């Protein structure tokens, strides 16, 4: 498994959507879960598969009408790496938010306190 070279917000959304599913998910489900367009999601899925984070297979449900679905699921290493990446990004966001809140605190007045 190779690391993701460029982690974007859409990539994080796709990782989060895949982690939130129980088992394999098809592309349209990921698109709906992320709110991203197909032209954004499918290239990310292809890239993740090429890096070894996920694997895909064709749905073999012959009783279901319509075109076959391509199912995507994490490899064991990919699921762990995705959780680690999302946790690290959340920790960074939390630290940034706490820092921004601290910067907005009113500064103490230089006036002397009198009773």
UniProtKB/TrEMBL annotation:
Signal peptide: none annotated. InterPro entries: Tscrpt_reg_PadR_N, WH-like_DNA-bd_sf, WH_DNA-bd_sf. Keywords: DNA-binding. Residues 88-101 have a biased composition (Low complexity). Pfam families: PadR. Transmembrane segments: none annotated. The keyword DNA-binding applies. Residues 86-115 are annotated as: Disordered. The keyword DNA-binding applies. Residues 37-82 form the Transcription regulator PadR N-terminal domain. One of its GO terms (molecular function) is DNA binding. It comes from the Bacteria. This is DNA-binding MarR family transcriptional regulator. It comes from Curtobacterium pusillum. The lineage of its organism: Bacteria, Bacillati, Actinomycetota, Actinomycetes, Micrococcales.
